[in-house]
Amino acid sequence: MTRVTAAPEATDPGAAVTRGADARRVTGRGRSGKRRQRLEIVLFVTPALALMATFVAYPVYSAARMSFYDWKGFGPMVDSVGLQNYVRVLGDEVFTDAVMHNFIIVFASIAVQLPLGLALALLLNRRIRARGLLRTIIFVPYVLAEVIAGVVWFQLLQPRTGVLEKMLSSVGIPVPEQGFLGTPDLALATVFVVLTWKYLGLAVLLFLAGLQGVPDELYEAAQLDGASWWQVQRRIAVPLIAPTIRVWIFLSMIGSLQLFDMVWILTGGGPANATTTMATYLVSMGTQRSNFGIAGAASVVLFLIGFAMAVAYQALVLRRDTKADA
């Protein structure tokens, strides 16, 4: 039996040239697409990097450079003092008290605003009357400018003439003679009450947004199994918004470390440095005493404390969320 062998297919030189040209065209398009993507990345990232360099990196560098000089704000910085400004800042009892005040506000904010904001969010997530109005009332203080809110509360808390103190006195509640903001033992607690009124709306807004993202099927399945409203919230709703809660804690922590506006308007750091924060300390040293070297050292210490806490919180707490997303 004779085996029939197929003749080799004839190769068309023109077809080979066409295929080679097509391959080069595809390769060229791929390279062009990559260059275009890189150009788009550069165009979108450059403005953000420029802003970061102008308003973050350069001020940090200037403060760090300033901290090594005894500079009063005029003329060139030539009187180098090494680390003496840092020694003076860390040895200043006013600054150490300011650090303690910042950390008191950090922990008090988490201990008070977290459960209060979560409770309000759980309440407003239910179908109740005037729910929209209640949400607006709670959130409006947060969108007010700190200056406006601070001036309003400053007028309300004025001794003998403030509306709030007159109301308390009319119902028989004793009021300090120097007012709540003028009494060292009550000033920091009063400032914290104002801060809670101001920033509680952010916590409620974030928690409420997280709760509304929980699927209704989970609630319905739990109700079919006979779970009560409290059990549903404790076992399903709150665990599912835990990432949102952790993000809010981070924002609250960093905001409390940078606290300046409200304290400066209400008390200016007084009375007797009872409400001084790290930010008010460095501003007072720089603008009122013209000791910019001390102010620069204090700002660097504030930056390092905030950076260390942010990195630690990211590594210990937020890391699980980033891993889950990955």
UniProtKB/TrEMBL annotation:
The domain of life for this entry's organism is Bacteria
The primary site where this protein sits is membrane
UniProt membrane topology term: Multi-pass membrane protein
GO BP field:
transmembrane transport
The cross-references to Gene3D superfamilies, in alphabetical order and at most eight, read: MetI-like (1.10.3720.10)
Report the subcellular localization: Cell membrane
What are the protein's UniProt keywords? Answer: Cell membrane, Membrane, Transmembrane, Transmembrane helix, Transport
Query: By its UniProt entry, which Pfam families does this protein fall under?
Result: BPD_transp_1 (PF00528)
Q: Does the keyword section mention Membrane?
A: yes
Q: Name the coiled-coil region(s).
A: none
Q: Name one GO cellular component term.
A: plasma membrane
Q: Where is the ABC transmembrane type-1 domain?
A: 99-313
Query: Which family does the similarity line name?
Result: Belongs to the binding-protein-dependent transport system permease family.
Question: Could you tell me what this protein is called?
Answer: Carbohydrate ABC transporter membrane protein 1 (CUT1 family)
Q: Which organism is it from?
A: Blastococcus xanthinilyticus
